[in-house]
Amino acid sequence: MKSKDYSKRNIIQWIAFGIVMFSMVLRVVLFLSGIARELEYSTINAITWTGLTIGIILLLVSYLFPKET
Q1: Which of 1, 31, 43, 49 could covalently link to 39 via disulfide, CB atoms 3.0 to 4.6 Å apart?
Q2: What is the sign of the dihedral through the CA atoms of 26, 31, 37 and 41?
Q3: What are all long-range contacts of 46-51, with beta carbons under 8 Å and residues at least 24 apart?
Q4: Do the beta carbons of residue 48 and residue 21 sit within 8 Å?
Q5: Predicted model pTM
């Protein structure tokens, strides 16, 4: 099997996916560990929406690079 070469577009999309997943996992970990009880609910929402926003921006930026086949 031939090793798949990743283009800049694919790398940026994976980074965006990782950021979104990290923000969601961080929210779950904060709730399960009990730390979220000490934080305002708006802070937890800000973490989630910030991760989602950064991920969407990176995804849109990745489409500026040509798709390599």
Answers
A1: 43
A2: positive
A3: 47/23, 48/23, 48/24, 50/23, 51/19, 51/20, 51/22, 51/23, 51/24, 51/26
A4: no
A5: 0.83
